[in-house]
């Protein structure tokens, strides 16, 4: 499969801060790729470098095999929403898109089409200064779609959206990928991408932490863990520990067991005459898997006072 | 380049502030010029041998007010992009920065030349109609202000060019400094440094040197009388301003091309 975005050994430093530190990943067409990491992990910097706004110190970021700065009609090749605030408050919504269309030689009718697509037609003649954050996000998305590009990048697109808006944008991302486009969407909350992303690129402190499918990541995080509910928790704990399992009391009446298959656990407890009200493979949430992955790379963790 | 220029033109024309600034440029220039011509009183003059004011220059005095609108327009064309963040969509639409810069400079220059031309024509017309009523009549040896007179034409055309160069100077400074307040303060200070500092220079030679190097040396182009007394020749003065604009544009271009957006 061809790659739509190809980031290779990317390094970017601002003064003494290393924002991106040897990052490599690929974004493929037809998939929604989630770009995840804690705040300050380097997601926005990477996107700015891909778009040629900031220059890489080392490495490369290519779109369809070419650097952004060499693209002749970039808006027809990549559409991006970096910051919904990047609009002049004194300009009408329609005019914001119109100057971009003129700049790239796109036909004027595209302005009306993308305004329809994001549901802003009724406010097209209003000045952007009076827009809510959600409306600005929609305008930014309209700008990204202006050139009908095969590659789309959205930096934290659900910020400031209401639940209805969040559902709308998820459906939009899915449908864009279903049309064969490559979609890269960043978020600092993994849960936001749970039902949306096919592939995940997880970064922390500018480095790659995981480059995997959503399914694989969930399986790894859930691997070999069994959740057990029993009324006689402490006895069950000692029986399983004696059999070599690692046992943790997670909730009232509930144990999480690692190191023994579910069938073996059932047999052991049955032999000891201990009641079991529930026995199941643990299913990790994406958020959980992500917390596990990024535990060591959170820059701004709150230190708990002792 | 044509697409980029069209984009920059759409960008400027869709802001209400652009229309106001261009209107202010033309109206301030013509309005203050008319006031300048009206304030002269030559009714006691018997002829040029008796009193010989530079009527053309007085009739173009409004450029002092008009230039403020020109420099704000030029500065904002650069700094508003950084203040609002629209520099990002601009460079996404066209990542070739030299072309973006050329498009910006072309559109700003075109708009200021147009508005400046209107302001200057208004100024000359005002002088032509007001001055005879103040005693400066052809019968007394003061010909009507006319662009067919070579020196007056030079003054008028030079004033239009002066306004465009001021706008480019501010555009370059805006690209170099990126912040609106910093840019306006810097450019205004440089424009008004001569009249502010000159009184503190006791040595006339130093006053003269100062007048030769500041951006406002460009106003020498408005002079039509006693040219030999000027600290700097008319076109050379405009050249000094052009050098300031070029220097600002080089600094602005360097930052625009070499630094992250």
Automatic annotation (TrEMBL), chain A:
PROSITE patterns cross-referenced by the UniProt entry: ABC_TRANSPORTER_1, ABC_TRANSPORTER_2
UniProt xrefs under SUPFAM superfamilies: P-loop containing nucleoside triphosphate hydrolases
Signal peptide stretch: none
InterPro entries (alphabetical): AAA+_ATPase, ABC_transporter-like_ATP-bd, ABC_transporter-like_CS, P-loop_NTPase
Family matches, as Gene3D superfamilies: P-loop containing nucleotide triphosphate hydrolases (3.40.50.300)
Highest taxon of source: Bacteria
Annotated ABC transporter domain residues: 5-230
Alphabetized SMART domains for the sequence: AAA (SM00382)
An annotated Gene Ontology molecular function: ATP binding
Keywords: ATP-binding, Nucleotide-binding, Transport
Record family assignment: Belongs to the ABC transporter superfamily.
Name of the molecule in the record: ABC transporter ATP-binding protein
Upper taxonomic lineage: Bacteria, Bacillati, Actinomycetota, Actinomycetes, Micromonosporales
From TrEMBL, chain B:
Protein name: ABC transporter permease
Alphabetically ordered keywords of this record: Membrane, Transmembrane, Transmembrane helix
Upper lineage: Bacteria, Bacillati, Actinomycetota, Actinomycetes, Micromonosporales
Organism: Paractinoplanes globisporus
Transmembrane segments: 58-80, 101-131, 151-177, 184-201, 235-258
Keyword Transmembrane helix in annotation: yes
